[in-house]
Design brief:
Blueprint: E1 31-43, E2 55-58, E3 61-66, H1 68-83, E4 87-90, H2 93-102, H3 108-121, E5 139-142, H4 143-155, H5 157-181, H6 184-191, H7 203-211, H8 214-221, H9 226-231, E6 247-249, E7 252-254, E8 261-267, H10 270-275, E9 283-301, H11 302-308, H12 313-329, H13 336-339, E10 347-353, H14 376-394, E11 399-406, E12 417-418, H15 422-437
Parallel strand pairs: 11-12
Antiparallel strand pairs: 1-9, 1-10, 2-3, 3-7, 4-5, 6-9, 7-9, 8-9, 10-11
Helix pairs in contact: 1-12, 2-3, 2-4, 3-5, 3-7, 4-8, 5-7, 12-15
Length: 438
Amino acid sequence: MGPCLLHPCRPNHPHCRGEEQVIHLGPGSLHIDVHLIQSYPYSNLNRDRQGAPKSAKYGGVMRARNSSQNAKRHTRQAVERATGIRAVRTRGVPQAVAKRLTERGWKPELALAAGQMLILAAGVKGLGIADNQGTNALLFLPDSALDDLAELADTHRGDITQAVYDIEAEEAKAAKKASRKKTDADMEELEVEDEPAVGEGSLLAKYAAKVLPKAAVLAILHSRNASVAAFGRMLANQPESIVDGAVQMAHGLSTHAASTQLDYFTAVDDILQDEGTERGAGHMGDQRYNSATFYRYTSLNVTELLKNLDGDTPSAQAVLAEFVRAFVTTVLPAKSSGTAAFTVPHLTYVAVRTDRPVSLVGAYETPVPDSTDGYLPTSLARLNAHAQAHHRFLGTGGLVTHAHSGLTDDSFDALGDRLDGLDDLIARVSDTVAKELA
């Protein structure tokens, strides 16, 4: 899979390694920290290449892990459903634009060429068309950007149509000229060469630059909505498109050592069983699962979100409320048909801070030991003790408010007020942020 040019997930790019980050994390910025303790039964929430549950070594032992990418995607989609504001991460922009153009009466081949020309007209170094006719990299755009691109193409329909005819004529002329010059051996060698992705220097790019306004295309690629503002974006070689995501999400880790368990299974052939001709399995195999109590953490930089939304406070308030709800309630659906691991966090702790985000994962650097009482009681107590240690060391001047709620009836003195439920936690956070921004 190629690089992701329009999303902050390129580990080899300096921006994504943190070397060029300009996110405001220090004093003067407003942060919402959300901490969860959540127990999952026998399941496989997030698979690695071999199909086994993901894991990580922390505190000298192997832990169950849920990747931040996985949790962030499901959380983002839940926020988008709740707010009605959607962004798409895709390589299929040319095809999506072509679909819209065919609905406007364009011929399919011409519509696809137009979608590809729009990408090439942007003139972004390294961004081109792959063999599958889509882009050679993922783009992250507001859903409305696809309509905007189609509208731009429709405005230049005549010029695009003529350009496609001219390209076909040039290609035919070049092919005829090549056939006269090449020997049979030369042609055989030519046919086995790999076809490069369409990009800079291609006929399609040359004509795209002639008939489509680069500035207009780039303006659409640079556009953002609340989802892009919250979750961020990066377009290499196009600094104007970069959006430092307001959401920072950690990989979920089990609070204790965890190992992968092997499940051998069989499937019965119903017809053969009915006929009595087969008593063995129709299919057999094995799958990998684990069970664990996770510490999960995320932080929303309200200051950064407001900046990304050009100071639109109502939109920021809507996003932060739905983000907190989504992070707490979103189901991680992998292998759900065979495990139904639809649990709710035992504890949710939220804090609004003006100093910096604070993860409490250090509470579990020493793994919670095995116990007939399970991992939850000690995991909850450890979180409370670790939060208390942070309050003592950092002070509470930057802690505007904090509170907790969950399935347990216990209260935890270092985790602020105990509230009845999630709605109360969200209301506390929203009211506090509104006062801070007033």
